[in-house]
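Good day; I would like, with your permission, to put a structural problem before you. A protein sequence and the structure tokens that stand for its backbone fold form the material at issue. I would ask you to consider whether the tokens describe a fold that such a sequence might reasonably adopt. I set the record out below, with my sincere thanks for your time.
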Amino acid sequence: MCGLVGIVANHPVNQEIYDALTVLQHRGQDSSGIMTDDNGVLCLRKSNGLVSDVFSQEDMATLRGNIGIGHVRYPTAGSLSSTEAQPFYVNTPFGISLAHNGNLVNTNELRDHLKKVDKRHLNTESDTEALLNLFAHEVQIQNLEEVTPQSIFDATEKVFNRCSGGYAVVAMILNHGLIAFRDPNAIRPLVIGVRESNEGKEYMVASESVALDVVGFSLLRDVLPGEAIFIDTGGNFYSKQCVEPKSYTPCIFEFVYFARPDSIIDGMSVYKSRLKMGEYLAQSIIEKGLHHEVDVVIPIPDTSRTSALQVAHHLGVKYREGFIKNRYIGRTFIMPGQDKRKKSVRQKLNPIELELKDKNVLLIDDSIVRGTTSKRIIEMTRSTGAKKVFFASAAPPVKYPNVYGIDMPASSELIASGKSEEELAGFIGADWLIYQTLDDLIEAVKFDETGVQAFDTSCFSGEYVTNDISQKYLKSLESKRSDDAIRESEQLRKQIEINDPSISAN
């Protein structure tokens, strides 16, 4: 999962891109990058690390220009190396930079074609670099003297026809403008913002509407499935439905976990969705007759707070904060490697004994993926003196890999795969465990007045909206992205950087 920003304004955009990336930091903590266009001169700063760590005051001063794109990353394709920090850049044609959120599922075929047929050199394993070279190739073969909106849309149509997966893209062509497009199923989010200035309209695209809010842009609409937009250096806005939408099925896990609650995605409020998740979850607990045992509802901060408030309200029991979160520890779900996740849980959360001791505690979390965090938190709750510990997930059991940009690659690492709720409760140490049903989750998220037809629920249902995911592909992902594979890759990267320190230089 990654965060994207692109701005075309009438003044320097470096600070606004930086500010927008800071509120999208929850979407990726591995690396950060900004590229700007200073009247045809490319300005770049990117490296591994958080936004606040990567960009110094001196770096910001070098990022000149009124057009720019930014990116925060956690890797689902490629490696953890700083060489794969985004945005990427190619100098032919015109000078094109690109950043991407999501995952292509036909990367191997695409890479082979780019190398053997299109004669494009790829320097990394990143699917973003493949996307960039494909787009650049399609622009180049048009043999244009100048870029036009139609040439952009023609090139983007070819990208849509050759790529499969979930992807949202922002790109920049030096001296010409900003491009953004979204896959034909609209799996990954991308919104458009607008702002009036004395010199005319300014535009912004971002992964979530909260990024627009923080820099003073108003939400215009979402980029539609299979649509591309182009904003030239004069601030002129163009859009085209380049291919027919295959569906309108945004990823439902955005609403469960990834997106900030104050975001609006595809016309749907993340906050309201999570409120309704809590309502439906409380109904299930009551229907099973489990609510009589509960003394207090405690959220696992931060994502589950909204749902937990509604659970407590509908059960008629107290809602309390039982854990204090260390704000300087990253989200454990997006930390690569099981060992890092285990170590970080105790550093991340500290229990409040006053709210837990001698009580029957119902813990609410947004979801259970690997079970590492859930198990450790239950252990902490018991060690603090709770009589009984119950656990409820605002999402259904995560049983299947997500292949569209979320790091859930190996079924063997998903705790719910092949286990009953009773077995899962025993594994994490809960007195009882209850999950949201998939039907209730869908009802909680959907809003009738939007154009959304359905949702990508693949990590819960095993149904992949692109209809081209084979068991062979899933096996290959598992071999690349399991915790063991990540550890081996990280060890290899460190060894390479020891032998050649210039590789890790900022």
